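Quick one: structure for this chain?
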Amino acid sequence: MEFQNSGFTVLIEQDEDGVYVAKVPDIPGCYTQGKTVEQAMERIREAVQVCLEIGEKI
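Got it. Here's what it folds into:
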């Protein structure tokens, strides 16, 4: 599954345990998970913000 989030592509896959894993391929190390797609999307929005803030400080 693929979504656009703040101009970034978000890939969501369901793992073997039924957990949804969301990642942003354009931001190395930017990923999270959730019990539902909605939860994974909410969390990836937060993860993108954190990853971008950290990137600005480096």
